[in-house]
Amino acid sequence: MAYINGIGLISPQKTAGTRVFLEEIMEYTSDYLKCIDPVYKDYIDPIVSRRMSRLIKMGIASARICLQDAGCVIPDAIITGTGLGSVEDTEKILGDIAREEKFLNPTPFIQSTYNTISSQIAIILKCHGYNSTYVHRTFSFESSLIDALLQIEDKMAENILTGGIDEMTMNHLQITRRAGHWKREPVHNLSILETQTQGALAGEGSAYFLLSSHQTSSTYANLKDAINIFLPPEIPSPALRDYLSCFLQRNELSVMDIDLVLLGMNGDSRYDHFYTDFATNLLPGKPQGYYKHLCGEYHTATGFGLYVAASMIKSKTYPEIIHLNSIQPGRLKNILIYNQYDNLNHSLLLVQG
Amino acid sequence: MRIFVTGFGLISCLGKNISENLNSLLRSQSGIGKIHQIETLLKDEFPVGEVHFTLEELFKLAGLPFEEGYSRNALMGIIAAREAFSHARMDVNSKLRTGLISATTVGGMDRCELYYADFLQNDSRNAYIDTYDCADSTEKIARLLGIHDFITTISTACSSAANAIMLGARMIKADRLDRVLAGGTEALTKFHLNGFNALKILDKEPCKPFDEHRAGITLGEGAAYLVLESETSVRKTRNPVLCELVGWGNACEAFHQTASSPDGIGAYLAMKKALEMSGLSPNDIDYINAHGTGTDNNDLSEGKAIERLFGNRIPRVSSTKPFTGHTTSAAGSTEAILSILCLQHQVIWPNLNFQTPMKDLNFIPVKKLLQNIPVSAVMSNSFGFGGNDTSLIFRRTQDMGDEGLNAE
Questions:
Q1: Which of B237, B268, B295 lies at the terminal end of a domain, its last residue?
Q2: Most exposed residue of A162, A221, B106, B370, measured as fewest CB within 10 angstroms of its CB?
Q3: With an 8 Å Cβ cutoff, are A106 and B119 in contact?
């Protein structure tokens, strides 16, 4: 259990550096949802940021926003989840070595290393505490949260800066579209659930949270628990239903206690029914919300989901743009966030008021 | 809560399993040589610690038929993970909660760099598109071995696998898992070679850590996994215990993205945390398997940190990178295993290629293989770019028989 005492989120919505919660919604008809860049010089010395690639800047700026929001100067630990790290830098090196293996600029190599974001934040903050980076598709951000929860429960740290960050580039979009991940045509982000076509609408984002052992005046909500479950069809394993009941049980809750289910639906006709099945079969009659029409799909998109859940609890509002069904929650005490990827990687987050 | 090591598996330039690696080590024979498996202009410029098998041969060793979509990275991971898994007789149908925590820094880059132009231009290599990320090898291992309760992948540059072992222990300690397969896999690529070359930290000769005339890193590749079990799990599996993981520490230099601080603050803090946690005194550590990359920077910084922590009673120290090359993300688990072999066989591995003591340090590494020497606690250091430093301590377990935990 950890209190969420600060949030810094750079996303395709106007979320960076404001506590206003989804009042003005950005609409796009595009190939992917691109983040709205904040004014980086407000957060990073321009001399320092001159050679930084975009992902690193996004990470540092959102980490700074989060710490300001929480009123924390130096956290005890920094943990980042990123599915792909700096795609831009990796592409530069791949281009360079394909042309000629000579006179390479070392900067993209350094920045392509997945742990650069966590360690750059540590360098800027002079934070010598625990530092780690998780790089496992849609488990990346969740693993960071689990690591942070373990540390707080074990009293290894009191304030942990924990984030999830991924970027999209045109090349990467083109390549991963070949693998079938994305829709073939530009789509209107607020209409993704009506498309009935294969593939998701891609997105990106950087979300940092200050997870703490104690409550403060800036506390949003409480991250009660998080799990990753890997369920390939060929492995004999308990069903998702069993993992869910185990998860609720160890948090001393039953299905009845869940006030709202926040689903990672992304408009991919091949997979959205897994969310519908999950919510209707395992949590029948519950209010259902969704958020990926606002941020797009990316490996660490549950960072946006956690922002939505925590902000709903803090503001005691349930914005209409989130509604997936018409059932209204009686209260916003227990929010369950469910995400899946390829029907293999499943994760559950429990957020409490 | 005690954490027991009950299995391990290793593939490196020294051999395709634990016993081949052990034989090379006991003969003080390095695995470093010329590049054969990668087409690169740097082929004759830098020696490496290469795993001596083609992709096709790795498929055979992994017991799999050839299939599109497999990288060297994944295949080496499968080979080592499987050895560890069968060593610890892991039965996935048992009620024990089992996890896989793997580490890698460039994932399936070995195929990606070959097919990148195709990725951009045509559909001929689509089977490899999703295999270039870091999670691919982890998921392939999990699927083959049937692990589903928890899987994740860590990337903290050259300390990645040490952090995987550390998280495994913490997941058991927190009672989220009963046992964990933890380690890392890394295939050498043009990407690595050119990246490290651009940083000008590769030695043209096999590396010579802790030598006054050291000239940089020799890169290597391989995969290494350990099986960690809780006490409850060991009582159920009745696995013989290899040793106990008694301490771990992770700290960050917060100094520079690729260089270590001159006083080795990150290294010092990581070793200190691990030592404090283990409850051992500095005198109890019989051997430090140093990170010892052979760069000017690392060896000075690590050496200073060792001097600061251990004062004038410095344990025996060596870097085994002149044997294996620097296997980057897999170095943490590779060297953890090499350290555990010291506990098992009561030996200390030499720091090959060492000739001239460093002016700035008041200790020298072990020069020749030491045999029949009491080794009951070892420290294994892994430090990475970004100042991600981790130290692990393993101890011989006194109350373990060959039949597992002594009966209550």
A1: B237
A2: B370
A3: no
